[in-house]
Design a protein that fits this description.
With about 450 residues, the protein is α/β, with parallel strands linked by helices. The strands form 2 sheets. It has a 7-stranded mixed beta sheet. Strands 9-10-8-11-12-13 form a 6-stranded mixed beta sheet, sandwiched between helices. A hairpin with a 2-residue loop joins β4 and β5. It folds into 3 domains: about 100 residues, Probable tRNA modification gtpase trme, domain 1 (Gyrase A, domain 2), CATH 3.30.1360.120; about 150 residues, tRNA modification GTPase MnmE domain 2 (Four Helix Bundle (Hemerythrin (Met), subunit A), Up-down Bundle), CATH 1.20.120; about 150 residues, P-loop containing nucleotide triphosphate hydrolases (Rossmann fold), CATH 3.40.50.300.
Length: about 450
């Protein structure tokens, strides 16, 4: 059995409490070298016990909670000491455990032991990282669903289906009858069609959730003085960008973010794209072009009080889908001709800004997000889903091959799905995943 490890599991600094963890076969034994229950209480599993922690004669009144294996986070004996918050005190408790034989835990080692002891799957471990790092309500809900095992459950179901198919093929190969071969083949491909459909849906949902995780990157583009900076300020509800009547005021990309229906939208107010001899402005225009090429959504801003200019048309040619044409300055008489996919707004008076936000959400997210649906939470998992889908397509391409060959091709689907749960993933990849955790988690 591995050595008992210890770490501080709360941020260092002043606070109400700090928690120091121990995990391993000697966790309770190590803790009781320093902790004495008050009034000779008996330490009960999963219950807080009040007592004193001995720090070379000085007594710290604190709480101890003991989780007996296998019913703990790590699957090992786990002890937590809850002391008053403070950097010096917390470090002294951790140092005491180290002097008593425990060693400092590596980043993510508590969660890695949970994975190795079968308490969680690899995708659930990754979901815990996403949960900790969430920056929006939607991102957190997605992570919580994954941490509860939604993706793991779906992958296990598919692997179980594949295992049953492989067993049927094996039986058919052991007792070969030509007529039976075709019956088995038809059944195999009928069930693989169901798995393929489910995988495709998983990929589609996961692609949608990519916006939930990373946010939707929105480029605000247009020529100078059409009201891009005013539009940004209206969208975020504060004066983030400088607004003047002078052309070329915005010389760099101004960034800001808001939540729309729980999803983070990252706005990039770009310098007006035009020909310029000013070196600083030219740098800003180059950045604008780069932002435009990387955007998930483009807001192409036009001045509604003017007819379309050659400069507007040049920028319009750079805009890629999806996009919304934002006709600004509708608080004044309109001269601009009708535009594709347009919405009229007045950034100055904030007219129609909420409708613009609604259209932005519908154009990117498309529909209300079902946070209970299983999905990949990161690129590694999504790539594994796509690889598994390609493997199934490969099986269909070889539909008329022998059952022996089909068995090998189908087995590969099972193995690729195992990368998601950690059953078949490379050890180096697993180490990298757990290194992303902080010490004490």
């Amino acid at each position: 059995m591995e050595k008992t490890i210890t770490a501080i599991s709360t941020p260092l600094g002043k606070g109400a409490i700090s928690i120091v963890r121990l995990s391993g076969k000697d966790a309770l034994k190590t803790a009781l070298k320093f902790f004495t229950p008050l009034n000779k209480q008996k330490i009960e599993k999963r219950k807080m016990t009040l007592g004193n922690f001995d720090l070379d004669g000085a007594k710290e009144k604190c709480l101890l909670v003991y989780f007996q294996r296998p019913n703990s986070y790590t699957g090992e004996d786990l002890v937590e000491i809850h002391v008053h918050g403070g950097t010096t005190l917390t470090k002294l408790v951790q140092d005491a455990f180290c002097k008593a034989g425990a060693r400092l835990a590596e980043p993510g080692e508590f969660t890695r032991r949970a994975f190795e002891n079968g308490k969680i799957s690899l995708d659930e471990a990754e979901a815990i990282i996403e949960e900790i790092n969430s920056e929006s309500e939607a991102e957190l809900k997605t992570a919580l669903t994954a941490a509860a095992g939604a993706l793991n459950l779906k992958i296990k179901e598919q692997q179980d289906q594949i295992t049953s198919l492989l067993a049927e093929i094996e039986v058919s190969m052991d007792y070969p009858e030509e007529d039976e071969f075709e019956v088995v083949r038809d059944k195999v491909f009928a069930e693989l069609e169901v798995i393929k459909t489910e995988l495709k849906r998983l990929i589609e949902i996961s692609e949608q959730r990519r916006f939930v995780k990373n946010g939707v990157n929105v480029a605000i583009v247009g020529r100078t003085n059409v009201g891009k900076s005013s539009l940004l300020n209206a969208l975020i509800g504060e004066d983030k960008a400088i607004v003047t009547a002078i052309e070329g005021t915005t010389r760099d990309v101004v960034e800001a973010s808001i939540d729309i229906n729980g999803v983070r939208f990252n706005f990039y107010d770009t310098a007006g794209i035009r020909e310029s001899e000013d070196k600083v402005e030219k740098l800003g225009i180059e950045k604008s072009r780069k932002v435009l090429s990387n955007a998930d959504l483009t807001l192409f801003v036009l001045d509604g009080t003017q007819t379309m200019t050659d400069g507007d048309k040049d920028i319009q040619a750079l805009v890629k889908k999806p996009f919304i044409t934002v006709v600004n300055k509708t608080d004044n008489p309109r001269k601009l001709e009708k535009q594709p996919n347009e919405i009229e707004v007045s950034a100055k008076n904030q007219n129609n800004i909420d409708e613009l936000k609604r259209q932005m959400f519908n154009l990117t997210i498309g529909e209300e997000i079902d946070f209970n649906a299983a999905s990949a939470t990161n690129e590694r998992q999504l790539e594994a889903l796509k690889e598994a889908y390609q493997c199934i397509q490969n099986v269909f391409k070889n539909k008329h091959e022998s059952l022996e060959i089909l068995s090998l091709l189908i087995k590969k689907v099972w193995l690729v799905l195992g990368k998601i749960t950690g059953e078949t993933e490379n050890e180096d990849i697993i180490s990298v995943i757990f290194s992303k955790f902080c010490v004490g988690k």
